[in-house]
Amino acid sequence: MTSDITELGVAAIRDGVTQGEFTAVEAAQAFNARVAAAKPLNTFITETPEQAIEQAKAVDETRAAGKPLGKMAGVPIGMKDLFCTKGVQAAAASHILEGFTPPYESTVSGKLWDAGATMLGKLNMDQFAMGSSNETSHFGNVISPWRAKGSNKDFVPGGSSGGSSSAIAARLCPAATGTDTGGSIRQPAAFTGITGIKPTYGRCSRWGIIAFASSLDQAGAMAHDVKDCAIMLEAMAGFDPKDSTSLDEPVPDWEAALSGDLKGKRVGIAKEYHMDGMDAEIEALWDKGRDMLADAGAEIVDISLPHTKYALPAYYIIAPAEASSNLARYDGVRYGQRELPEGAGLQDMYAATRAAGFGDEVKRRIMIGTYVLSAGFYDAYYTQAQKVRTLIKRDFEQAWEKCDVILAPTTPTAAFSPGEQSDNPIAMYLNDVFAVPASMAGLPAMSVPAGINKDGLPLGLQIVGKPLDEQGVLNAGLAIEERAGFTAKPEEWW
Questions:
Q1: Higher model confidence: residue 229 or residue 339?
Q2: Which one of 35, 209, 401, 476 has the lowest number of neighbouring Cβ atoms within 10 Å?
Q3: Which residue of the set 94, 106, 133, 160 is catalytic?
Q4: 132 is catalytic
Q5: Model confidence at 1: pLDDT above 70
Q6: Domains delineated in the chain
């Protein structure tokens, strides 16, 4: 059985450990071996095989003592490098934080360990979560396990949670944490044929997660299927007094209430999501998704989200503005890297440290953010972007009068190859065009794999829901999953 464990998902591993079919230690050993054999994908920055075994032993001891096990009992997971993990490096894939080992545990990771999950290691990502392709990491690009038919060309796994998506798709872990600021869970999930959910803003604590844009960042779950995402998200979510934006709301039993029956539900199709330059295969898949949800009993209704076209430009004002403020703390004084040229004063040390420690994309966003927050441009850019954000939220509020969830594409194209868009920041930013509106409004949204394109690469569909209605999103996602019958997985070339 041990050799087959790596093919199992969260629910199957948890149930197998709980019922004694195999031990948590056997699960940890199986995945540790698989991680060690997949170096070419570069999914992990730091591997923690010993920690996975120790945590697994604790789960097995709890079971042997006849005590109840947690929701994630014995499930080995990958932890995105943005989460602070006690005693294990949390570098946010940057040079400036390389070697930083937090003396504390993030709330989300702590909840997962309490639920019985075990940590295989820290996953690679775009530096400080800034990127859509996992090409900005200080520790090198992550490679997707997917290959096009008849080709050996590499593809990107999406970003910023590309290490998470690549590791799950390659069966290096059954699930992983991700964070989503403007699509960084959903876009990589779509690129690699896995499922990923961003919950309502505030549903998961941000305490102990290295900040990018504080009003947008939200932790979420990434796994093989909808049920596994529901289980993991349940373990991650909950009120945290240490986070001022945390929602004091009960965490529902999402797994128990899962149902693909959408009778009585209305699914909105926004005309504004029909965009120029959209891949014809994705447009066709969107139509197919509409039919799938209708088959599940839902009523399909046309809606309008008129300010959608302004979401991306507004996002790329607000997010860099918050980033420039959040990243000001990395100055070489208290923690992280320090560059001290001979004879340097304090300002020289700041400049040298930040020049050496930040990558090009991070510097670009700091510069944009500082510019739009400067005295002469604050009202012209930042204030206007916040007004647009309010209008986007209002669009969704009006849409909920007509529908319960919204169906949209996750991405405008399938995965692309490294280097194809890295020289054109605007083209790269457009990868998040369908994901950003839900982030701006703080809404729950998930991507579900729903098809394969002509080249054999996965495509995803996105469900967006009302605030705190993760159940509605999960159920609509399950309806697509049941009808799409997506079972494709990458062939092992690595």
A1: 229
A2: 401
A3: 160
A4: no
A5: no
A6: 1-494 (3.90.1300.10)
